[in-house]
Amino acid sequence: MIGCLHRTVKLRKMGELVQPTFRVDAAACQARGLQAGAATPPPAWPKKKDLASAGHVYVYPDAMPAAVAAPAPTEAGAAVYDEGGFCSLLSWSPALDPIAAKPWRLAEVAYGYVKEHPYELAVLPLGATEPHNLHLPYGTDTFEAEHLSDEACRAAWERGARVVLLPAIPYGTETNQMAFPLAMNLNPSTLHLVIRDLVDSLAHHGIRKVVLFNSHGGNDLKPLLRELYGKTPVHLFLFNWYHAVRDAYHQIFEHADDHAGEAETSLLLAWRPELVLRRPDGTLAADEGATLPTRFEAINRGWVNITRPWHLLTTNSGAGNPHAATAEKGRRLAALVAERLAAFLVELSHATLDERFPF
Question: 99-113, 178-192, 194-208: which range is least confident on average?
Fold first, then answer.
């Protein structure tokens, strides 16, 4: 298990290796979401010339000497030498240890890694900040965007895709949810400008393939793709994850989910169950997610579209019955989304850009 610790190492000048001492820094492990536990030690300790680029961390059982004093960690990946040529500290380095860092996550890697490992394509997750019935957190769409895109990028990276996952945008278009407290709105024009600036940044840095990973139905992004076509060297692709699994939805779920229903609740139960509110009897602290029809048949049948005022459509912002949700259903859905996107990311990463791309 890779984790966090302070390591005091003494290495002889001529490369003779001396057993180091350790103490596990459990707090540092917890801060990084890692677990302190047993691990296999490295076959050989690196020589002095290798230390600055090693960056590997090995966690030993808590039974190892805990009283061993260690210097305070320095900048990630830095090796500290004394006058005798010995290394007194090699700090934990997510930038230099891609196994620990998850190198597809831009937020977690450092320039020292990025400058030596160029990316081929980027994924930009888009979420929202809005109510989700009475039981799910306001960040539900953003959690979905982050978790699902991360799983897809991980799977694609392991198959050789040079993909970088950008930090998620946690705000979306909420004009029809503003009757609910603290729904945080970006008008479509504003959101499009933000995305356009980020696409321009990626183009400047040489990335020509970008996937917009959208997790919020209010983010209408297809017009942006049309507007930017031919005006940027970047090829844009839109992935609305909830559209990508329509054909298999009812193989997993009992009830349709428009907003905060069975599917979204299952995802949060799988990832962040502590954020899902329950009643004292253990049931979800949610209403049934019922919705009202309009007075017009053409709208109810989908022949005519409107922007639905969510406070009139729903009782507490939920559209879809959440009460059959389970964590296992959420894991099945997440695995399906990740697999379908990962396969595309691998193809896209390896695809050659020519005058007929993507045909």
Answer: 99-113
Residue pointed to by tokens 């699902």 = 148
Q: Find, among 104, 78, 244, the residue nearest to 163 by Cα.
A: 104
Whether 5 shows a pLDDT value over 90: the answer reads no
| Overall pTM > 0.90 | no
Q: Is the same domain home to 42 and 136? A: no
Residue 258 in domain: yes
Kindly state the helix (H) or strand (E) to which residue 114 belongs, with its residue range: helix 111-114
Helix runs in the chain, H state only = 26-31, 48-54, 98-101, 111-114, 140-158, 188-204, 222-228, 241-244, 249-252, 262-271, 297-300, 310-313, 327-350
CB 132 within 8 A of CB 140: yes
Cα R_g (the chain), whole angstroms: 25
**Nearest one of 123, 171, 128 to 260, comparing CA atoms:** 128
Q: What is the pLDDT of residue 76?
A: 35
Residue type for 160, please?
G
CATH assignment at residue 203: 3.40.50.10310
Whether residue 71 is preceded by a cis peptide bond, meaning omega within 30 degrees of 0, is no
